[in-house]
Each structure stands twice: as C-alpha cells, then as structure tokens.
C-alpha cells in the first residue's frame, strides 16, 4: 500500500477514513488532529475517531483494514457490544487509530451529526470528517477532567481553540453540552481566562 506524501499520522487518518467511507461507516475525527485544525497545530502519535459501528459491519471493517492494520476482531466486537473502544495499528508506520464506538452515547451521535468536512492538501478528494470546534473543546475538557485536571497539553489545546475561534464559537452549544458532560465549571474557567 502506498500512502500520500503527508506526515504519517495524517496519511493514516486519510487512509482509514477512505476505508470507512468505502464500507459506509460514519466517523468523526477528534482529539489532537481536530484541535490542530481549530486551534494550535501540534504533533500527535495517534488518530482518535468516533465510529457509528454496528455488529453487522465488523466483517466489512476487518476486510477493509486487514492486512495493512493490526486489529483484533474480538476487541472490535466487544467495543460495539459495550459502546467501548478498540484500536488498530498501521503495520508499516506503527500509527495507532483509537476507535470509540458511538453506541448509545448521545454526545457521540451529536458529534457524528454535526461533523464538518476538512480538505487536507490540494485535492478535494482528501477530506476528513472532523469534530466542530465546540465539540473538540468539550471532549478535551472531558479528557482533562478524567485525567485529574493535570494535563497541560489538553488545557493548552482548549485555550488555543477558544483564543483562535473567539466569537465564532457557538456558546449555546458549548453551555448545553458542558452541562450534560459535567464540565461547565471548566468551560467557564477557560472562557474567563480568554476574556
């Protein structure tokens, strides 16, 4: 398999996206790739994506990913059953893709519903479905909280998005979902720091 001449993580993201599109599995990319689009660009070693993956699509997923990616079918089936996670690793580049299965999670389905297409490079065919800036902020705040509120990287990503996006951010969306996700206090702190 020949990948585009892009940094490994971005090339792998495009490759996995193409494979998911080919089997009609909706996805949205979040994490550091999304925060780099909406805020301060930085390097990352993996791809975080949410997939609306069902049991009846597992065989097609395995056929689409193997042999170029190491992925355990049992782990994928378990993640679909529980709304959990599994990963795939590109055999040549060693880049890891973390699949978060949407399951019954309302926020994950909102992320899938509102995803935006981001063109990578000069070709319109090199498009990734990414989180909105608002959803990137919210998920980063949630990870910051889950990690004991000590990750400078997560906090810096959130602040950079807020600083760069400014008034373009939908404050109603931020407020509503921050309440649902239990991060209203963190959001208020970030917004106050950025004012």
How would you describe what is shown here?
The protein has two domains: 8-130, 2-Layer Sandwich (Beta Polymerase, domain 2), CATH 3.30.460.10; 134-194, no CATH class. Strands 1-2-5-4-3 form a five-stranded mixed beta sheet, sandwiched between helices. Strands 6-7 form a two-stranded antiparallel sheet. The chain has helices spanning 8-22, 31-38, 58-65, 73-82, 106-114, 133-146, 152-165, 171-181, 184-194; strands at 27-29, 46-51, 69-71, 85-90, 96-101, 116-119, 127-130. The protein is globular, with a radius of gyration of 17 Å. The longest helix is centred in the N-terminal third of the chain and has 15 residues, at 8-22. Mean pLDDT is 91; it is low at 1-6. The chain contains nine helices and seven strands; from the N terminus they run H-E-H-E-H-E-H-E-E-H-E-E-H-H-H-H. By secondary structure, it is of the alpha+beta class. Helices cover 51% and strands 16% of the residues.
């Amino acid at each position: 398999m020949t990948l585009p001449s892009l940094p490994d993580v971005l090339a792998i993201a495009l490759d996995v996206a193409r494979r998911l599109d080919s089997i009609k599995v909706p996805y949205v990319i979040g994490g550091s790739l999304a925060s780099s689009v909406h805020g301060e660009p930085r390097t990352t070693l993996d791809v975080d994506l949410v997939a609306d993956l069902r049991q009846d699509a597992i065989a097609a997923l395995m056929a689409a990913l193997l042999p170029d990616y190491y992925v355990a079918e049992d782990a994928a089936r378990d993640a679909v059953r529980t709304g959990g996670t599994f990963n795939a690793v590109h055999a040549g580049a060693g880049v890891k893709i973390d699949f978060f299965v949407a399951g019954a999670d309302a926020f994950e389905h909102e992320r899938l519903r509102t995803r935006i297409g981001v063109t990578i490079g000069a070709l319109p065919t090199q498009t990734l479905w990414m989180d909105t800036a608002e959803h990137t902020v919210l998920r980063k705040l949630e990870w910051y909280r889950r990690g004991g509120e000590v990750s400078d990287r997560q906090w810096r990503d959130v602040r950079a998005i807020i600083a760069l996006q400014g008034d373009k951010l939908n404050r109603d969306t931020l407020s509503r979902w921050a309440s649902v996700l239990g991060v209203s206090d963190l959001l208020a702190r970030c917004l106050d720091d950025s004012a």
